[in-house]
Amino acid sequence: MDFGELLKVFLLDLQSIFRYRVSSPDLTLPQILLLSSISSEGTDMSSLSKQMGVDNSTMTRLIGVLIRNDWVEKYKGENDRRVVFVKITSKGEEIRREIDTKINEFGIEIINAIPPEDRNDIREMLTSLHWLLSKQLLRIK
After folding, report:
1. CATH for the stretch 3-140
2. Mean pLDDT of all residues in 2-7
3. CB-CB contact of 71 with 95 (8 Å)
4. Dihedral-angle region of residue 3 (phi above 0 means left; psi in -120 to 50 means alpha; beta otherwise)
5. Which stretches make up the HTH marR-type domain (predicted)?
6. Are 45 and 86 in contact (CB under 8 A)?
7. Cβ contact 128:64 at 8 Å
8. pLDDT band with cut points at 50, 70 and 90 for residue 5
9. Residue 33 — very low, low, confident or very high, per pLDDT cuts 50/70/90?
């Protein structure tokens, strides 16, 4: 399997795992990722769009669902009223904690399935891969 194909199946596996292990009937995968990406202090919509790799109109629709469920709220920036921010509500924070707990539990299962002598090497490789992917994203944006 070449590296591109390996990345593709890795992404598909992670998406499937998130869908079945982390999501609930009320949450889609994009909603899970979005709730996990919004900082507690609030995040501007344009940054969220870039981070999620979607255009602003798609982000507006995704955020609309979260607002209707009272998981987030929107507000305008104090310095620039054109900038729209999104902030997690207390109800959204509860869901985010549940998501984080499920992700951490899954992470523990994965790390425990790896032989102890290989764990640090794999963690370092994944950290390096994340760093390389982040650099690629900066070039795209």
Report:
1. 1.10.10.10
2. 91
3. yes
4. alpha
5. 1-131
6. yes
7. no
8. very high
9. confident
Pick 45 or 23 by higher pLDDT. 45
Q: Are 98 and 108 within 8 A, CB to CB? A: no
Which residue in this structure is represented by tokens 């982040």?
134
The rounded Cα 45 to chain-centroid distance in angstroms is: 14
Q: What is the torsional sign of CA 17, 85, 127, 106?
A: negative
Beta strands in the chain (DSSP E): 43-44, 72-76, 84-88
pLDDT (0 to 100) of residue 111:
94
Amino acid present at 88: I
Give the start-to-end residue ranges of the domains of the chain: 3-140
Residue 103: name the closest of 22, 26, 30, 20 by CA: 22
State in Å, rounded, how far the first CA of the chain is from the last one: 29
Amino acid, res. 23: S
Give 22 or 120, the one with higher predicted confidence: 120
pLDDT at 78 over 90: no
